[in-house]
Write a structure and sequence with these properties.
Layout: E1 7-11, H1 22-29, E2 33-35, H2 46-58, E3 64-69, H3 71-84, E4 96-102, H4 107-110, E5 132-136, H5 145-155, E6 158-161, H6 178-189
Length: 192
Amino acid sequence: MRVSEADILFVPGLGGSGPGHWQHRWAEKFSSGRTVDLPELDRPDFSAWTSAIVEAAAACEKPVVLIGHSLGSLAIVHAMQDMHGPDAANDAGTPVRAAFLVTPPSARVLEKLDVIDPAFADIPAAPLPFPSLVIASRDDPYATMEESESMALDWGAQVVDAGEAGHINADSGHGPWPEGLMRLATFMARLK
């Protein structure tokens, strides 16, 4: 599948992922890309964020690929559990075809952040009903490599070790993030 054949929905993290972030750059670059309008970016509300993702995906006309960063990655996983319920693996009617999840934070870290709704820390352990990829960093301050691998295993996602890449955001030197674009292209080429 090519990027142009899908609706690409970007789900930012806490604070909207910040200026110069690769998500903003990619959303502007992709003709079929847009950022999900999440309320209260600085004080994420679990119900509002997951509802916004479900509504945005349901409104799409093409197959949907979700691209999340940090808390946005976890919001995607939560929203897809809500959208599909316990029989998610058998739900072929979903508009969502894949998820590209970059540096999801661990429950251990989320529990220490007062500005984030505690419901996010109850991280689903059920497999996602579509192909998914977790990009993990060995020195991410929000999750250890082991925590990232454990979440990916629970979700049935492939793990990509990005090495020592920080939180893979503008602060860690990943503004345009061309390596991520190449990884996304490879991932999408395998989708039907």
